[in-house]
Design goal:
By secondary structure, the protein is α/β, with parallel strands linked by helices. About 40% of the residues lie in helices and about 25% in strands. It has two domains: about 140 residues, NAD(P)-binding Rossmann-like Domain (Rossmann fold, 3-Layer(aba) Sandwich), CATH 3.40.50.720; about 190 residues, Dihydrodipicolinate Reductase, domain 2. The chain contains twelve helices and 14 strands. The strands form two sheets. Strands 13-12-11-7-10-9-8-14 form an eight-stranded mixed β-sheet. Strand 2, helix 2 and strand 3 form a beta-alpha-beta unit. Helix 4 runs parallel beside helix 5, helix 5 runs antiparallel to helix 12 and helix 6 packs across helix 9. It is globular, with a radius of gyration of 20 Å. The relative contact order is 0.16.
């Protein structure tokens, strides 16, 4: 399939590298409002550079558009691309508000094109192992699920590029930008959270409009409780961590590693899981460096997306699924602002 990338910043490199490793996938075009940057990206990855969206969308045989612009600009590229009949792959978050996510979803449904939100953490072995155990009811009744993203970003991170840390283009801070991967995993594991109570603050970074610290308590539809902690003001930064517990088992996942795995009713496979991950060293991921995430997750998800397009099946992270984390984070922001519990309004 032929792909085009809108926005040629840091995250676009991960998309391009992933596509280069997928047989049959080809990056044919890129678009950026800065011509020099578009040209440099095109030369590096062997595609055609554009500075105009209409011309980009008219590129011969372009089938899929990967949107890698600042978060608050996803809608601007998504609507014309969907209207032009292109399938969409949108970096996280799908957009910065529930309403803007809904507009993208509606546009794709009306145009009859596929829509996927990028959440590569779902595609690593540890996450799929944990999800499969939950679906098999290995944990029994779920009682607690929590996500911890205690990261570090220096002041230069927010100063560079001119959009990070702004409400309009970033949509939020430590939650909407960094912790959203863990929030997505938590909802995938635990099911929907229906009510939140939260506190946020900007403690370690001057001059940004969004939070660099957040704590939220959650109530899930299934009766379980949980915690979300997100920060970009914790030095030196720690690996992303998720914990899932029930009446019959518990697991702790750190990045793509399982640190704890135990159930009342053990199986031979449980010992194999523990042995396999005992040999795996946890890496810090993007804990202190946003470029340190690697592109394997993007490759795995893009392979899955290509399969869903070619078979006409629903992708694992379709538009509605990708919007869930945005809806929850919006509720967390509202709770922190109003200092009251807030019901989560999903699409």
């Amino acid at each position: 399939m032929n792909f085009g990338i809108v926005g040629t910043g840091l995250i676009a490199e991960f998309h391009a590298k992933a596509l280069e490793e997928i047989p049959g996938a080809k990056l044919v075009a890129c678009l950026d409002k800065f011509p020099d940057r578009a040209q440099a990206f095109a030369q590096k990855h062997g595609c055609q550079a554009y500075g105009d969206l209409e011309a980009f969308l008219a590129h011969k045989d372009l089938e899929v558009v990967n949107i890698c612009t600042p978060s608050g600009l996803h809608l601007d590229a998504a609507l014309p691309a969907a209207a032009a009949g292109k399938h969409l792959v949108v970096e996280k978050p799908l957009e910065t508000t529930r309403e803007r996510c809904a507009a993208i979803i509606d546009a794709c449904q009306k145009a009859g094109v596929g829509l996927s939100g990028i959440f590569p953490s779902r595609f690593f072995d540890a996450a799929t192992t944990l999800k499969n155990a939950i679906d098999a009811n290995r944990f029994g009744k779920l009682t607690m699920g929590s996500a911890y993203v205690k990261w570090w970003r220096d002041p230069e991170y927010y100063a560079k590029g001119g959009w990070k840390g702004t409400k309009a283009l970033d949509g939020g801070g430590a939650l909407m930008n960094q912790s959203i991967h863990a929030v997505d995993l938590l909802l995938w594991f635990m099911g929907r959270a229906d009510e939140v109570c939260a506190l946020t603050g900007t403690i370690g970074h001057e001059g940004i409009e969004v939070e660099d610290n957040a704590v939220a308590s959650l109530h899930f539809d299934n009766g379980a409780l949980g915690i979300v902690q997100g920060s970009t003001a914790i030095w030196p930064g720690f690996a992303k961590r998720l914990e899932v517990s029930g009446l019959e088992g518990s697991a702790i996942m750190e990045e793509d590693n399982i640190l704890f795995w135990q159930f009342k009713k053990e199986t031979p496979e449980d010992a194999q899981v523990r042995e396999r991950y005992a040999r795996t060293n946890s890496h810090a991921g993007g804990a202190s460096d946003p470029a340190a995430i690697g592109h394997l997750g993007h490759k795995l998800q893009l392979e899955s997306i290509i399969h869903s397009i070619q078979t006409g099946t629903t992708p694992l992270v379709d538009g509605v699924e990708a919007a869930r984390s945005v809806c929850l984070i919006e509720a967390i922001y509202e709770s922190a602002e109003t200092k009251k519990p807030v019901k989560v309004n999903y699409l």
